[in-house]
């Protein structure tokens, strides 16, 4: 019937659509997006900046962090659009950046691999400082309530740089366990190119894990630490998953059997069977299941079969054809979880889809969804849909990565990006003087190129409103998983 429709009957609108097939079928420049996703991390740097800094609108900041406690805690990353260094999400960010290089680094152009390794190192140089003192792990610098009262560039910041730490008396197995994971994963990034550094990282990972395991507890159970980290990054789901996650990364990086035994002996008591379909800075379960499945699939360690079963059941919730109960999607097809910064879920899940697909295809396996088997190719197709949505195939027809494509967020919730650059405007802008820039409807003067924002709501709508931080704020843990994901698509769908 359609084929018989006379041309004259078509409206002008339909004709235009025929002549220009929907924008969604245009191929994306994944290589461009990859380079930008890594560049983003330079905009989040804290501490003295190196000579090869490419994001030139930034300057040195928080160079004396730690001095209130007589220690050096300069460096590391601001977590998002503010100027606080939260250790829990920073360590997770570093783990995910490193995992991306471990799985997909060989697909990256050499220049991008170098930049990605530098982004990992900016995290690990700081994390090594946080564990440099016996029986203490520094978990945060900056008073978040004071910081959030100001709209101030990091270079001008003059709010309290309060130092928070955990100790045997006030444990933090969550932060310490994630720090162990980050250092172990990063040791694999540098194993070939900088062996002494890789050894330092692995040694640090052993110590951080030992501390986490010997003094068990969640950092946000302590009233003082809770006042610091909560409500922003409370450990809602407990520290048990970070112990297994840290052990799994130590096993992978060191091949030491004692960590395999740890996982086998402690899996049950630490909740490995809880089968929680979450993966993010707080909850590591789905990532843990994928990571440990590699040991089962490739290492043929059959006692770990339950991890593959849990990973399968997670994947089944993502595949529309399967009969299991499904994760929520927006009408436009985006994975959606309530709570703000939704794209953090999308990027981390896309990462798991691709990584699990690699483990499965290497061993000629598939996802077991009961009556249905799902192929690695199908997992990759799911990941591609999510990434393409982020890059512009969505109802708003915009990219959610700053600087990618023609239409992208211009008014992101980010102090440094929205205030004049220290390079153009060296005069001090005080805490409340920044409010006019916060309230302005102008585009941010310093595009934070590569930043993926929190993203649209469950109706696929995005207003580009600086005040709406749930949608317009970028975070390091939204971007970290996307680096490996884009490396995969740049290599496999790049030159068309
Ligand atoms: C394996 O790790 C344990 C600590 O959990 C350590 O005592 C042991 O020396 C390690 N073995 C090797 C070969 O590195």
Set down the secondary structure blueprint.
Blueprint: H1 12-19, H2 30-43, E1 85-86, H3 87-104, H4 110-130, E2 137-141, H5 144-148, E3 163-166, H6 173-190, H7 195-214, H8 223-229, H9 240-254, H10 257-266, H11 285-297, H12 305-316, H13 343-362, E4 367-369, E5 372-374, H14 376-391, H15 415-418, H16 435-439, H17 469-472, H18 476-493
Helix pairs in contact: 2-4, 2-18, 3-4, 3-6, 3-18, 4-6, 6-7, 6-9, 7-9, 9-10, 9-11, 11-12, 11-13, 13-14, 13-18
2-acetamido-2-deoxy-beta-D-glucopyranose (NAG) is lined by residues 256, 258.
Your description of this structure?
By secondary structure, the chain is mainly alpha-helical. It has a single domain (7-492), classed as Glycosyltransferase. The protein is 46% helix and 3% strand. The protein is built from 18 helices and five strands. It has helices at 12-19, 30-43, 87-104, 110-130, 144-148, 173-190, 195-214, 223-229, 240-254, 257-266, 285-297, 305-316, 343-362, 376-391, 415-418, 435-439, 469-472, 476-493, and strands at residues 85-86, 137-141, 163-166, 367-369, 372-374. The strands form two sheets. A three-stranded antiparallel β-sheet has the order 1-2-3. Strands 4-5 form a two-stranded antiparallel ribbon. A hairpin with a 2-residue loop joins β4 and β5. α3 (87-104) runs antiparallel to α4 and α3 packs parallel to α18 (476-493). The radius of gyration is 23 Å and the shape is globular. It starts with 11 loop residues before the first helix and ends with a helix. Bound molecules: 2-acetamido-2-deoxy-beta-D-glucopyranose (NAG). 2-acetamido-2-deoxy-beta-D-glucopyranose (NAG) binds next to loops.
């Amino acid at each position: 019937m359609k084929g018989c429709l006379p041309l004259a009957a078509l409206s002008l609108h339909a004709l235009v659509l025929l002549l220009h097939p929907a924008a969604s079928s245009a191929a994306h420049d994944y290589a461009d997006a990859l380079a930008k996703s890594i560049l983003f991390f330079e905009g989040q740097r804290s501490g003295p900046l190196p000579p090869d800094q490419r994001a030139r609108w930034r300057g040195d900041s928080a160079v004396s962090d730690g001095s209130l406690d007589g220690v050096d805690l300069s460096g590391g990353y601001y977590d998002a659009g503010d100027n606080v260094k939260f250790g829990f999400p920073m360590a997770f960010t570093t783990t995910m950046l490193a995992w991306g290089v471990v799985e997909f680094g060989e697909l990256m152009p050499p220049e991008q691999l170098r930049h990605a390794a530098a982004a990992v190192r900016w995290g690990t140089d700081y994390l090594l400082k946080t564990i440099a003192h016996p029986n203490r792990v520094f978990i945060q610098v900056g008073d978040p309530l004071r910081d959030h009262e100001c709209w101030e560039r990091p270079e001008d910041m003059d709010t309290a740089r309060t130092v928070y730490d955990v100790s045997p008396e006030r444990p933090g197995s969550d932060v310490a366990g994630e720090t162990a994971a980050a250092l172990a994963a990063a040791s694999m990034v540098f194993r070939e190119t900088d062996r002494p550094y890789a050894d330092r990282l692995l040694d640090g990972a052993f110590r951080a894990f030992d501390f986490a395991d010997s003094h068990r507890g969640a950092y946000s159970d302590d009233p003082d630490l809770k006042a610091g980290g909560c409500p922003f990054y409370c450990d809602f789901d407990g520290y048990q998953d970070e112990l297994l996650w840290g052990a799994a990364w130590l096993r992978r990086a060191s091949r030491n059997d004692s960590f395999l035994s740890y996982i086998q002996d402690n899996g049950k008591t630490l909740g490995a069977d809880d089968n929680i379909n979450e993966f993010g800075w707080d909850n590591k379960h789905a990532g843990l299941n994928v990571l440990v499945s590699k040991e089962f699939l490739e290492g043929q360690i059959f006692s770990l079969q339950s991890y593959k079963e849990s990973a399968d059941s997670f994947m089944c919730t993502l595949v529309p054809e399967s009969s299991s109960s499904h994760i929520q999607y927006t009408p436009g097809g985006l994975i959606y979880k309530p709570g703000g910064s939704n794209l953090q879920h999308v990027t981390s899940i896309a990462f798991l889809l691709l990584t699990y697909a690699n483990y499965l295809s290497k061993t000629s396996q598939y996802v077991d969804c009961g009556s249905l088997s799902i192929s690695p190719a199908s997992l990759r197709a799911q990941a591609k849909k999510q990434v393409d949505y982020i890059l512009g195939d969505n109802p708003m027809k915009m990219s959610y990565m700053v600087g990618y494509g023609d239409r992208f967020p211009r008014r992101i919730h980010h102090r440094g990006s929205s205030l004049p650059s220290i390079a153009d405007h060296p005069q001090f802008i005080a805490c409340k003087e920044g409010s006019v820039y916060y309230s302005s409807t102008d585009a941010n003067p310093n595009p934070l190129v590569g930043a993926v924002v929190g993203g649209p709501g469950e109706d696929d709508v995005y207003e580009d409103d600086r005040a709406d931080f749930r949608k317009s704020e970028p975070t390091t843990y939204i971007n970290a998983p996307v680096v490996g994901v884009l490396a995969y698509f740049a290599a496999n769908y790049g030159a068309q």
